[in-house]
């Protein structure tokens, strides 16, 4: 499972950095590297773009996992170069950006847009699989999320608009409920389709969320 990102347009990045001359760049060695949005190659390309735009890049690094608490120590190891900068440009997901910010006394700006959590179906093609809604409905379907995989979030069956197994809203996507039907059929569990699911508790998706784990 990966956090899927895309790079912001350069013009937007430069607008974010307009009040800063000296920039330090961070990338991420996990998800952003896989998406080709924040690995070494992309960080070096961004360095070149910023310098061409008149910025001074005081340094850069690709943090092994930007959203990990160990980011604190990566920042400490590069603190001399970071201290020379006016701001940090983070090429990672939203969680990674906020983690960098938590351990730095510099303003931190995003170079990427965080899109979704998903997996790589085939090289270069990613699909969203979890919305982190807080009220998991996968038990209805024994393994395929109807909330995220269905464009309409249908919980009690297909909408009737699918054609040739594809979604009417997004014809390039498989209908989630066709996938669910085929899976239940393979498992000899089609009787699950007769069950009426309880109403979903959408209040659990209210943000910002927090949780306390009782020891």
Protein architecture, described:
The protein has 215 residues and is of the alpha/beta class. It folds into two domains: 114 residues, Response regulator (Rossmann fold), CATH 3.40.50; 63 residues, no CATH class. The protein contains nine helices and seven strands. The chain has a four-stranded parallel beta sheet with strand order 3-2-4-5, with helices on both faces. A three-stranded antiparallel beta sheet has the order 1-6-7. Strand 6 and strand 7 form a beta hairpin. The model has no long low-confidence stretch (mean pLDDT 91).
Structural class: alpha/beta
In helices, the fraction of residues equals: 25-40%
User: Which CATH C-level class of the largest domain is it?
Assistant: Alpha Beta
Question: How are strands sequenced across the largest beta sheet?
Answer: 3-2-4-5
Q: How many individual domains?
A: 2
Mean pLDDT: 91
Number of strands: 7
Distance between the termini: 27 Å
Largest sheet: 4 strands, parallel
In short:
This protein has 215 residues and is of the alpha/beta class.
Notable characteristics:
215 residues, 4-stranded parallel sheet, Rossmann fold, 7 strands, 3-stranded antiparallel sheet
SSE layout and pairing:
Blueprint: E1 2-7, H1 10-16, E2 22-28, H2 31-34, H3 40-52, E3 56-63, H4 71-77, H5 79-83, E4 87-90, H6 94-102, E5 108-110, E6 112-122, E7 125-130, H7 138-141, H8 146-149, H9 176-186
Parallel strand pairs: 2-3, 2-4, 4-5
Antiparallel strand pairs: 1-6, 6-7
